[in-house]
User: Which sequence fits this backbone?
């Protein structure tokens, strides 16, 4: 049984190559990284990751979570959601990375200082 | 090249009992598969929450054999079960991903085109499922930054789509045994 037809392979490889190339082009820039914490869709806090020390941020909402920052990185320390996907994401530190807790509607996104994506709230 | 999955459809007017029975079976299978893959160990690679999409196997089969509206029904029920087990947000996510994915797959099957085989359709289905979910989360939680994950999801969609496509091809005879097309008197192949 032949599994892949010719166009299937073209489609699959084409998509993989384009995505891999895109990943290369969006390179993580070194330098100032800013973590943006959003709750329920609105940005509540911007943290300069390179300048922050170890610190925990509890967020009390319908689903409480605790965010921890460390030297240049940030993560969900704990969360009371059932699936804990956010906690399992672990530390994120590079521009473009995101951690989300869906039940709590809390997200951490890291943007670079010269990020091209439009900010909803600019500092 | 692949042969089409079935000709013709098993339609409601052909045989109501058979249609309903098949629909029920497929729905149950979709639910069972989604529960099964929730039990599998997750690979927290780059994006946690990337699922294997085993129920896409059933969705794809239904899209080709039963048509688009019955497939929507299966997706709806399966998402409702997922949502009741995992939380309201996941119902909407699963629903939109499944609807877009099955719509696209039905269109591809209806076109009876010669180029893309089952693997290609499976890949496109998984891809759209992932991207729709990503877009929805980005929209609802207002995280434009999530769009950075599009390349990752495309690659994982291709990989997962290939895996489910392979499983689909291997289990196609078993799936076909569930419903015999009575119009043409031969087994749906």
Assistant:
């Amino acid at each position: 049984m032949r599994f892949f037809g010719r166009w299937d392979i073209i489609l699959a490889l084409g998509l993989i190559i384009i995505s891999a190339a895109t990943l290369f082009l969006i390179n993580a820039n070194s330098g100032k990284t800013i973590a943006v914490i959003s709750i329920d869709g609105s940005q509540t806090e911007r943290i300069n990751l390179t300048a922050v020390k170890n610190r925990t941020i509890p967020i009390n909402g319908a689903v409480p979570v605790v965010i921890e920052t460390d030297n240049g990185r940030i993560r969900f320390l704990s969360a009371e959601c059932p699936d804990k996907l956010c906690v399992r994401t672990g530390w994120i530190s590079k521009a473009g990375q995101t951690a989300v807790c869906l039940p709590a509607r809390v997200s951490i996104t890291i943007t670079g200082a010269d990020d091209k994506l439009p900010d909803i709230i600019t500092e | 090249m692949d042969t089409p999955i079935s000709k013709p459809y098993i339609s409601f007017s052909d045989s109501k009992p058979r249609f309903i029975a098949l629909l029920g079976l497929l729905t149950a299978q979709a639910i069972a598969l989604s529960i099964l893959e929730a039990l599998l160990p997750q690979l927290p690679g780059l994006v946690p929450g990337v699922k294997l999409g085993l129920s896409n196997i059933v969705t794809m089969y239904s899209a080709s054999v039963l048509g688009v509206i019955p497939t929507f029904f299966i997706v709806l029920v399966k998402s409702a079960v997922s949502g009741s087990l995992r939380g309201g947000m996941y119902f909407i996510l699963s629903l939109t991903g499944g609807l877009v994915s099955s719509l696209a797959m039905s269109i591809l099957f209806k076109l009876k085109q010669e180029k893309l085989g089952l693997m290609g359709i499976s890949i496109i289905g998984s891809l759209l499922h992932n991207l729709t979910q990503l877009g929805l989360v980005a929209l609802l939680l207002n995280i434009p930054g999530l769009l950075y994950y599009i390349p990752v999801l495309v690659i994982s969609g291709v990989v997962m789509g290939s895996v489910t496509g392979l499983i689909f091809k291997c289990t196609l005879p078993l799936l076909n045994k569930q419903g015999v097309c009575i119009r043409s008197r031969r087994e749906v192949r």
